[in-house]
Amino acid sequence: MAFLLLRNNAATIRGVTGFAATVLAAPALLAEGVPLTTAPGRFAIGVAVSIALWLAVGFVAARRSTRSPVATWRDFWREWVWLAAGLWLGVALGLVVIEFALL
Fold this sequence. Notes:
This protein is mainly alpha-helical and 103 residues long. It has one domain. It is 76% helix and 0% strand. α4 (40-65) runs antiparallel to α5 (73-101).
């Protein structure tokens, strides 16, 4: 979705929405400094770390949801949403810190 929003972009709302979708999908990009630098190696590392991070979130959610012998997908998604919300809150706080640090 982020790629489609940012491709051939001329509108501000698409740019902001595309950037938000990008950092929520790949939260490690901020740690690599991708919005501020355009080095191709940094982008690849940020994407790879983000994939590993989302796999870890899925693994932890699966482990926590299967503590009960009668686990369902609903249990998994409930655990995943809590972990993803914490991750996304960290991304939002990181963006706020970046904003104030660059003033």
